[in-house]
Design a protein that fits this description.
alpha/beta, Rossmann fold, 43% helix, globular
Length: 380
C-alpha cells in the first residue's frame, strides 16, 4: 500500500491515506463494540461520505477494511458515486482465516461449503468470537451484494484471481496486478559476483515447510544454508537441523538485503498457497533465483527453468536433487539470477506497477460513470 502511494505521489497524483490501527481495540468494551460493528458499521458509511465530500477523489482504493472500516466503506463510496477499487491481499472475503489454511494444511471447506466452518474450526486466530465476527461480515456482504459496489478488484496473481472467481466474484471485475517494492528496493546497488550458499527468509512455522527444507539438507552437506526468521517452530527446527545450517533469527530489512545479495539462491518450501510474498519480489530485484514448492501462486511467480525451479510440495528428495543439480552445474544459478532480475523489471518494477495501477483506476472510473447513467427507459 505504501509503495503504491509513493509511486502515485511521485507521478504527480494527489493521494490521501487513511489508516486505522487495530491495536486501538483494547478492553472488553471496545472488543464487544467491534464484534457487533464488524459486519457493517453505519458510522463508517458516514465517515467515507464525509471524506469524499471533503477530498473529492476520483477513486477510493481499499486495502484492508477488517475489522474497523467494515464493508460500509465500500457501500458509502458507491453511494457517493466514486469509483471503488479493492486489493485482495488475501482471501478474507471467503475464508475466516484469510489464507485457505488450517493447522498447517490447505483447507477449502468454506470455499466449497458453508462459511460457518470458519466458526466450527475457530479459524480467525483460534478465537470463537473473532471467527463469528468474520463469518457474520462475510454473510452480510454477500447477502447484501456489497461486493457489487466494487468496480475493480485487484488480485495479486492469476492463481488468486481464479480462486476469487471460484468463490463467486465476477471475473470481469477482477484485474491482476502484483505488489511492488518501495523505491529504495528498485535499484539493487552493488551485488557480490561471488554469491554462494542457499538462503531461506520467512516465518518459522509449519505452513512454510522449513522442516522439509532441513530434512532435504541432510542430503546436502556441502551446500551452506542460512535461515533468517523466527516463529513458533524455531526451537524445534534448530534442535533438529543438520550440521552446517546457520540460524540468524529475525533481521532488519537492510540486513536481509545483505544476505540476499550474497546468496546464490533462495529456497521457498511452502506447503500453502502463499499470496505474493514480498520476499520473492525482493529476491528477483536483487537477481536472486528461487527454488520453490510447486503450489499455488509460487508456481506462477517462479518460472521453472527460467528465474528459478519448482519441486514437488513436501518432497525432500526432489528438493535435494534440485539444489544439488543447481549447485553442481557451472553458471546455472548465475544465468537464472539474470532472468530473475529481468522478471523484476518486466513484472514488478515501480514503473510497470504504476502503469498497471493507473490503468485499473481508469477502468474503475469508467465503470463508475457507466453505473451512474440512468437505466434504459428512465428519465434523466
Amino acid at each position: 500500500m505504501r509503495a503504491e502511494v509513493e509511486l502515485l505521489r511521485r507521478a504527480g497524483h494527489t493521494v490521501r491515506l487513511e489508516i486505522v490501527d487495530n491495536h486501538t481495540i483494547s478492553g472488553i468494551g471496545a472488543k464487544i463494540e467491534t464484534f457487533f460493528a464488524t459486519p457493517y458499521n453505519p458510522a463508517r458509511f458516514d465517515f467515507i461520505i464525509g471524506l469524499i465530500r471533503e477530498f473529492r477523489p476520483d477513486v477510493v482504493h481499499i486495502h484492508n477494511f477488517f475489522p474497523l472500516f467494515t464493508p460500509a466503506v465500500h457501500e458509502g463510496a458507491r453511494a457517493a458515486g466514486v469509483a471503488v477499487v479493492q486489493t485482495l491481499q488475501n482471501y478474507r472475503l471467503f475464508c475466516a482465516g484469510a489464507f485457505f489454511l488450517r493447522e498447517g494444511r490447505i483447507c477449502e471447506k468454506c470455499l466449497h461449503g458453508a462459511r460457518y466452518w470458519g466458526v466450527v474450526h475457530r479459524c480467525y486466530r483460534n478465537s470463537l468470537p473473532g471467527s463469528v465476527a468474520v463469518v457474520r461480515m462475510q454473510n452480510r456482504a454477500f447477502s447484501h451484494r456489497t461486493w457489487d459496489s466494487v468496480d475493480r478488484f485487484i488480485a495479486l496473481t492469476d492463481f488468486a484471481r481464479a480462486k476469487c472467481i471460484e468463490a463467486g466474484l465476477s471475473a470481469d471485475r477482477i484485474a491482476v496486478k502484483p505488489n511492488t517494492l518501495p523505491l529504495d528496493w528498485q535499484t539493487p546497488g552493488k551485488i557480490s559476483d561471488k554469491r554462494s550458499g542457499a538462503l531461506y527468509v520467512g516465518r518459522l512455522s509449519r505452513e512454510k515447510g522449513v522442516d522439509v527444507l532441513l530434512e532435504a539438507w541432510r542430503q546436502l552437506p556441502d551446500v551452506p544454508l542460512t535461515v533468517v526468521g523466527s516463529g513458533p517452530e524455531e526451537a524445534a527446527l534448530k534442535s533438529s537441523a543438520p550440521p552446517g545450517v546457520r540460524f540468524l533469527g529475525a533481521l532488519q530489512p537492510e540486513d536481509v538485503r545483505t544476505h540476499m545479495k550474497e546468496a546464490a539462491c533462495l529456497i521457498m518450501p511452502s506447503r500453502w498457497y502463499e499470496g505474493l510474498p514480498l520476499t520473492a519480489i525482493e529476491a528477483f530485484s536483487l537477481g536472486l533465483p528461487i527454488i520453490c514448492s510447486r503450489i499455488g501462486s509460487l508456481a506462477e511467480i517462479v518460472e521453472h527453468d527460467s528465474n528459478g525451479w519448482h519441486f514437488e510440495t513436501n518432497s525432500t528428495t526432489e528438493l535435494a536433487e534440485r539444489v544439488r543439480s543447481c549447485f553442481s552445474t557451472p553458471g546455472l544459478l548465475a544465468k537464472a539470477g539474470q532472468e530473475a532480475r529481468a522478471s523484476f523489471h518486466r513484472q514488478y518494477s515501480g514503473d510497470r506497477n504504476l502503469e498497471m495501477l493507473t490503468g485499473i483506476y481508469q477502468q474503475a472510473i469508467a465503470s463508475a460513470k457507466l453505473r451512474a447513467l440512468p437505466a434504459v427507459g428512465q428519465g434523466a
